[in-house]
């Protein structure tokens, strides 16, 4: 998926507050949850989301949706990562 298609998908599914998020290289965040849902597409680098039941690694053009209350942690690759994100 390209950025234009992803932005349209965000809009179609009611996501707002669309922004670019930069992750520094080798960032290894703690497990946490949000009180909002997020839809995220990696535009550069590599981003791994760790969930309580496993992990998934995303590269450019890959996207995911993280429901409110889902415990997760973000880990970026050696070159960091950039993502486009919207919340609702």
CATH homologous superfamily heading: Jelly Rolls
On the 0-100 scale, what is the average pLDDT? 97
CATH architectural name: Sandwich
Number-wise, the strands total 5
Helix content: 10-25%
Name the CATH class.
Mainly Beta
Low-pLDDT segments: none
Radius of gyration: 12 Å
Order of helices and strands: HEEEEE
- How would a textbook summarize the main sheet? 5 strands, antiparallel
Question: Could you say which overall geometry the principal axes of the C-alpha atoms support?
Answer: globular
- How many domains make up the 3D coordinates? 1
Set out the fold topology.
Layout: H1 3-12, E1 16-23, E2 38-51, E3 54-58, E4 63-66, E5 72-87
Structure in words:
This protein is mainly β. Helix content is 11%, strand content 53%. It has a single domain, classed as Jelly Rolls (Sandwich), CATH 2.60.120. Strands 1, 2, 3, 4 and 5 form a five-stranded antiparallel β-sheet that branches. The model has no long low-confidence stretch (mean pLDDT 97).
Which key terms come to mind for this protein?
single chain, Jelly Rolls, 88 residues
In short, what is this structure?
The chain is mostly beta strands and 88 residues long. Helices cover 11% and strands 53% of the residues.
């Amino acid at each position: 998926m390209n950025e234009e298609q992803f932005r349209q998908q965000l809009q179609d599914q009611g996501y707002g507050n669309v922004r670019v998020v930069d992750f520094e290289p080798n960032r290894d965040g703690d497990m946490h949850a949000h009180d909002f849902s997020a839809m995220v597409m990696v535009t550069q680098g590599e981003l791994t989301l760790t969930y309580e039941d496993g992990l998934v690694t995303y590269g450019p053009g890959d996207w995911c949706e993280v429901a409110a209350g889902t415990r997760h942690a973000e880990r970026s690759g050696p070159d960091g990562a950039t993502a486009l994100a919207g919340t609702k």
